[in-house]
Amino acid sequence: MYSYEDRMRAVALYIKLGKRPKATIRQLGYPSKNALKGWYLEYEHHLDLRLGFAPRAPKFTQAQKEVAVEHYRTHGRCVSATMRALGYPGRATLTAWVREAFPETSEAVTGRTGRPRYPDALKKAGVVGLYTRQESAQALAEKLGVCRPTLYNWKNQLLGPEAPAFMKRKNNLPPVPERKELEFQLETLQHDIQKLQLEHDLLKKANEILKKDLGVDLQLLSNREKTLLVGALKDLYQLPDLLAQLGLARSSYFYHRTRMRMSDKYLTIRQNITEIFEANRRCYGYRRLQASLAKQSVTISEKVVQRLMKQENLIVATPKRRRYRSYLGEISPAPENLINRDFQATAPNEKWLTDITEFHIPAGKVYLSPIIDCFDGLVISWSIGTKPDAELVNTMLDAAIETVTGTDERPIVHSDRGAHYRWPGWLPDPPPVTITILPQNLIVLSFPWQELCPPS
């Protein structure tokens, strides 16, 4: 309870700070937000605060109290009957009123009477008849004027609870320890059966709803997928059992259930993205789609566009990168494979290798065509250009022939089966049926088999 000065100080500071309750409470350390607003409303209405709190008005008037006590006194002194007749007050309140009006009563006010007392002779006769009876215990109890449980209570009072109620006792039940063990085993088996049935139903629902294999590991599913399974089986199993079997936290389940119930805030944007994508022949990527949405005054990040495209299965068809390949088919007879994968040379200018290599540089594509000696890796000749044409390989070949002109050396030039090595300049026109020696009679050609082109 706050004093008058504390309340006035709080109201004055509240008005000074522009009616900001948080700032006022933070500076004073009291009171609560609602209490401060209540003090201000009282001050605004009366231009002052009351000095103290008025006592609470009693719930029942003195007349109601006197009527209740008089009804209790004249109607059998029963608390329950008085409460039912008048409809008020509570049991504790009425008991306090009665004790205040009749202080001489020391016993607790109650609405029940004591149990009837039976003579000991009747109890003994009932127990003897229970053991010597030729009829049911219910019939014997009716003869004595008591109920059947009372008859057995007399037996327990006189002979103890362990004494048999009938002389011919059937001992068909197993011993207590063995019976408890069997009951425990039965309970364990029932629990295992229920657990296996739960796992079977989860796998079946995962196959139906999530299109998963029947042997999928339930622990590897995402929390959203687990939430879908729980929602499908929550009418058949208890929620704690489902969450424990899936290894899903309770908070995660309710979080994903709330998220799935929320409406899709990107529904209109999804439709716009799909329309723009289809209208532009399915060629727009996420950047151009984002730019198109920006023209429609729709601001959205690139990552969201990527995610929506993935969810809507909007895939841009991109051409595959084509690698350079000089093979155009068997356009002319091919020389024999003289090298036969033996790239070891015993002397210079015995075996030469040639091929065309493509390079990608910022300026474009560049093609290099060298001739390399197998003896020591020496580059005999080379040429470079921006097009893999006949001039590229013919220039290289002419430069290589000049290095052996005037000697007795006749090297074997081994290349792949590309079209560059079957054009004029390498072969006579028209080419013969079998080709081995070049027209210059200085170099011998060798082509690999078609399936062995990479080693060249």
Low-pLDDT windows of residues: 432-437, 451-456
Biggest β-sheet: count, sense, barrel? 6 strands, mixed
Please give the number of β-strands. 6
CATH architecture of the domain at 351-452: 2-Layer Sandwich
Oligomeric status of the shown chains?
A: single chain
GO biological process, one term: DNA integration
Pfam family, one: HTH_21
Organism: Ochrobactrum soli
Domain Integrase catalytic: 344-456
Any overview of this molecule?
Keywords: Coiled coil. GO terms for molecular function: nucleic acid binding. This is Mobile element protein. Pfam families: HTH_21, rve. Residues 344-456 form the Integrase catalytic domain. The chain contains 17 helices and six strands. The protein is elongated, with a radius of gyration of 52 Å. Helix 7 packs across helix 9. It is of the alpha/beta class. Strands 1, 2, 3, 4, 5 and 6 form a six-stranded mixed β-sheet that branches. 47% of the residues lie in helices and 7% in strands. A hairpin with a 2-residue loop joins strand 2 and strand 3 (364-373). Among the domains are: 4-46; 120-159; 200-261, no CATH class; 267-311; 351-452, Nucleotidyltransferase, domain 5. The chain has helices at 4-16, 21-28, 33-46, 62-74, 79-86, 91-101, 120-132, 137-144, 148-159, 176-209, 223-233, 239-246, 250-261, 267-279, 286-295, 302-311, 390-404; strands at 351-354, 357-361, 364-373, 379-385, 412-414, 444-446.
